[in-house]
Amino acid sequence: MLADDALTGEGALARLRDYPGLRPLSAAQRRRADVHLVFAAGFTGATMELLESLAASSLNPAAGIVLITSHVPGPFVLRAVRSGVRSVLPRTAQGFDVVVEAVRDVARGDARMSPALQGRPRAARRQAPGGCRPPRAPWLGAEAVP
User: CA 67 to CA 38: how far, in whole Å?
Assistant: First the structure.
């Protein structure tokens, strides 16, 4: 579990310990994780580098990432998915049960990518070019995630 501020990190670790079946790992053991939980206030190039670093250093090539952030700018979406991001949740108005559900979903091989967090304007999400509506299924299958 990584957070861009100590208060969020400590609070998240304390909450994770309350859920049966989850085992938060120390920073030294992070490379063995099945799922990485990352809290980021905003998404920047440094956030992308962190996600790529997690993927590159992981001992588990199938490890997925749950990202809690305000948005993922369009140019970073594909890179983030290639780095193992399987779920993106908004940082605001999320109960911790939703975060834990996302962690468990990623561990099972599911993924969720909210269009609202991809940085696309609302009108572009509703209507795709050429008059076709984009698919409405928010759940995507993830490859090679245990």
Answer: 5
